[in-house]
């Protein structure tokens, strides 16, 4: 198969434990783009927190893309324009806030390029560190969030958060797309929006067939895009449930997993 697109998750997939792209992975990605492969960064991260990585990989030069907020926004790196944007309404965000209070979990959202919450904890600090975005602790979440936003995250200790996930799906699963990314991040986007649905829209725009797409991931919020890929792949450190559905398992994110995949699947080495 002649693949035309590689789509990859960031944290624990493309990025190593230091949050960096290895030199070998970077060189392989450049080589693939030079050969005409469209490269897509697909993450739960905000667009703001992905731009430096896109710049590092020269995505603008090669006409590649960012798929951010778990698929809520797709950005054409060459034009720096959003070609898709799906948001939660203000009232939907307020509904999620009320749920978070009833279930004793923290909640954040993104107001323009600022993370907003009534709380601040070690879990929220992880998101602030990952995204490098400004954080604002507010007295009244509902009063502050007075317009549509792209995504909410509920945060808490993983064992408890998995119970909250079940409660959320039972109570509001017909109204939102819900997925665990990191064990302490429960991510909520507009109903029907996930990495998979947005990837299919992008592929349609570019006249790329599903069987011409390689997707690489490691965790549960990658499942929707892995399921629509021609070739679902993962890194060696992926969750067991992810490995079960993948046709190719690469080396780990700390052992040049992307370079190994590109060499084997694109350049047949």
UniProtKB/TrEMBL annotation:
<dbReference type="GO" id="GO:0016787">
    <property type="term" value="F:hydrolase activity"/>
</dbReference>
<keyword id="KW-0378">Hydrolase</keyword>
<dbReference type="Pfam" id="PF08282">
    <property type="entry name" value="Hydrolase_3"/>
</dbReference>
<dbReference type="InterPro" id="IPR023214">
    <property type="entry name" value="HAD_sf"/>
</dbReference>
<protein>
    <submittedName>
        <fullName>Cof-type HAD-IIB family hydrolase</fullName>
        <ecNumber>3.1.3.-</ecNumber>
    </submittedName>
</protein>
<dbReference type="InterPro" id="IPR036412">
    <property type="entry name" value="HAD-like_sf"/>
</dbReference>
<dbReference type="InterPro" id="IPR006379">
    <property type="entry name" value="HAD-SF_hydro_IIB"/>
</dbReference>
<dbReference type="InterPro" id="IPR000150">
    <property type="entry name" value="Cof"/>
</dbReference>
